[in-house]
Design a protein that fits this description.
Length: 385
């Protein structure tokens, strides 16, 4: 595994649960940042590394320079190679041209948006406008208020409007992407088998487990007829990781900037809306802590939908599609997490938690009494704020 000397004492990142943990990918050092930023002619001299992100799948730091603040992000090349990052940057460029407020992707003297050094790839972004109100909170963090949920729904709809016309194909096989190749297929188990076959580390982890039977049970319980519903949904490149810590906020509580397109891929609008609800209206980190009937927030979900519908009206069919998607919408990203933990990190404990706790456990919760109540209230409430 690639290593960097971690001279940033005490830096911790979000773990798989509530506790903070030592980082898998050490914090970016000042010397490392200087070596990368030297390739970017529009960036001034470094004045200091102000903050290190607690996100666990990469390393990122906010850097003050004489020409303003920038965000440097470093990836292991097995997670994001140059081609993988360029896929994201092309989508960001389209959104920028369409008027979506996203941080600028900065380029080197030779016009590249990615720097590859040894086992690492780097990308550099301008600092987006707005307040990073949720930056130290885990990804599965509820909104602070119903107004924030509504504003996030508005911003998501506007992003979907801007995405129309971007017709790049779905992303290639790589870890940590919320792809959309299993649920829209008439035989989702066969599609899941193909997904596993394309990821040898995932297949090796699942060997000896009754994973086909486990997925078949999920599809039988929550996936019947889903492919038919999704067939009517226009394809669209989507964000796929819509939670409040990927948004920058204005003083009046609206969304000022959207960032972190690492999970973006070609899916459809209702899939992205379902992910947004799943990420923000259910406190998953409290699952199994003795109050599973109290982890969901239907009013927050309805506020998010209402904000979305204020820009792009949602008919009963779209609401039904979102509700039908919710129990399984996390499926492919959870599988990609298993591949990441088992294949790149060799962390079988976290891979097991991703499979048993996230993939199976979240789907099981939706079949519980509180989960069924959440879905019923969401369907009945529609876009009511």
């Amino acid at each position: 595994m690639a290593t960097v000397s971690d001279t940033i004492g005490g830096h911790l990142v979000h773990g798989m649960g509530i506790a903070m943990e030592a980082p898998t990918w050490p914090a970016i050092t000042p010397d490392e940042a200087a070596a990368v930023l030297a390739r970017f002619p529009t960036v001034g001299r470094i004045e200091g590394l102000r903050w290190h992100s607690p996100r666990p799948f990469s390393a990122a730091t906010l850097i003050d320079t004489t020409h303003g603040a920038v965000v440097l992000k470093r990836h292991d090349r097995r997670v994001r190679d140059v081609a993988g990052l360029v896929e994201e940057h092309r989508f960001i460029a389209h959104l920028t041209e369409a008027g979506t407020p996203v941080p600028a992707v900065l380029r080197t003297a030779d016009g590249a948006s990615v720097v590859a050094l040894g086992d690492w790839t780097y990308e550099l972004h301008g600092q987006g406008a707005g307040h990073d109100l949720y930056r130290d909170r885990p990804s599965w963090t509820p909104f602070r208020s119903r107004d924030h949920a509504y504003a996030a729904g508005v911003a998501l709809a506007r992003l979907h409007q801007a995405s129309v016309g971007y017709d790049a194909p779905a992303r290639g096989v790589q870890p940590l992407v919320a792809s959309f190749g299993i649920l829209p297929v008439a035989d989702p188990l066969a599609a899941a088998e193909a997904y596993v076959a394309a990821r040898p580390a995932l297949g090796a982890f699942l060997a000896g487990r009754a994973w086909r039977r486990e997925l078949a049970a999920l599809f039988a319980a929550s996936g019947v007829g889903l492919a038919t519903i999704l067939a009517d949904q226009p394809p669209l490149w989507t964000h796929n990781d819509w939670h409040p810590s990927n948004l920058l906020w204005s003083d009046d509580g609206t969304v000022e900037t959207v960032f972190d397109f690492g999970l973006a891929d070609r899916s459809c609008a209702v899939h992205d809306l379902a992910i947004a609800i799943e990420r923000t209206a259910i406190a998953w980190l409290r699952l199994g802590q003795g109050a599973d009937d109290a982890i969901a927030d239907p009013p927050a979900a309805r506020s998010l939908i209402a904000g979305y519908a204020s820009v792009l009206p949602l008919g009963p069919g779209a609401i039904d599609a979102v509700v039908r998607l919710l129990p399984l919408v996390h499926l492919e990203f959870a599988m990609s997490e298993v591949a990441y933990f088992a294949g790149i990190l060799g962390d079988t404990a976290s891979a097991s938690l991703a499979w048993d706790g996230y993939l199976l456990g979240h789907a099981d919760w939706f079949r519980s009494a509180p989960g069924r109540d959440f879905l019923a209230r969401l369907g009945a409430g529609g876009g009511a704020r």
